[in-house]
Design a protein that fits this description.
membrane; 75% helix; transmembrane; transmembrane helix; mainly alpha; globular; sphingosine N-acyltransferase activity; Ceramide synthase
């Protein structure tokens, strides 16, 4: 168990530092630190999402028996991804910190920030990103122990499907980068927005009805009878996982409505979502 977690603890922060330093030092780029930090954080999130969804596809398509079949990637990638969620909490804080500084809340002329400002920024960060921080904490403190210990090697198919929920994350990250650089009205942003909406709907919202349908097919039950056949804690866990996805999907839909308004309407506001 220790080796994949150590590897994840090296890969994700290492990729972030490599990307940030490259964007700052390449003669053709010479990006400011704030831009390099924000784009690098989005890049690492996208890489993790591609790795997770690829691992999930391999696992889910390899398990013919959805309960008993096992694949080594299910446990290995779960352990590998744990450090990512810890790293990403800090990376999101760095992004928030630099946005705070760019807005002129830091020290004068780029100097040291006034006393207590770090705690003020931290409180503002937790207030703004509370749901995402809570999601990451639950993934590490609850979902990881459950997937490694409680499952006892059962249900790798379902875990693989859940990993594929990350398919939407690269589109979310690209959308945020385009908004950061005020490219909301470009064709790329509109196409990316449509792909983000579709992938989020299929891979995060409709994923849960699909998992219930898959179990019902395995057990010979109609879809509506599956919740009654499952233990209450399984339904509760699914509901808790689905609830934030529905909230984020609502925000994406609201942003999409603003994005595709006719010209002359107020400009779209950023979607407050991430993988």
């Amino acid at each position: 168990m220790l080796t994949p977690m150590v590897a994840g603890g090296v890969v994700f922060p290492g990729l972030f530092l490599l990307s940030k330093n490259t964007l700052q030092r390449l003669p053709q780029l010479r990006w400011e630190e704030a831009d390099a930090v924000i784009v690098s954080a989005r890049l690492v999130s996208s890489v993790q999402a591609i790795m997770a969804s690829t691992a999930g596809y391999i696992v889910s398509t390899s398990c013919k028996h959805i309960i008993d079949d096992q694949h080594w990637l299910s446990s290995a990638y779960t352990q590998f991804a744990v450090p990512y969620f810890i790293y990403d909490i800090y990376a999101m804080f760095l992004c928030h910190w630099h946005k705070h500084q760019v807005k002129g809340h830091g020290g004068d002329d780029g100097g040291a920030s006034p006393p207590g400002s770090t705690w003020a920024v931290a409180r503002a960060y937790l207030h703004k990103e509370f749901l995402m921080v809570l999601h990451h904490a639950v993934m590490v403190l609850v979902c990881f122990p459950l997937s490694v210990v409680w499952r006892q090697g059962k249900g790798d198919f379902f875990l693989g499907c859940l990993l594929m929920a990350e398919v939407s994350t690269p589109f979310v990250c690209l959308g945020k980068i385009l908004i950061q650089y005020k490219q909301q009205h470009t064709l790329l942003h509109k196409v990316n927005g449509a792909l983000m909406l579709l992938s989020f709907l299929c891979c995060r919202v409709l994923l849960f009805p699909y998992l219930y349908w898959a179990y019902g097919r395995h057990a010979g039950l109609p879809l509506l009878s599956v919740p009654l056949a499952l233990p209450a804690h399984v339904n509760l866990g699914a509901a808790l996982l689905l609830a934030p996805q529905l909230y984020w999907f609502f925000l994406i839909c609201r942003g999409a409505c603003r994005l595709f308004r006719p010209r002359g309407s107020p400009p779209p506001s950023p979607c407050q979502t991430q993988d």
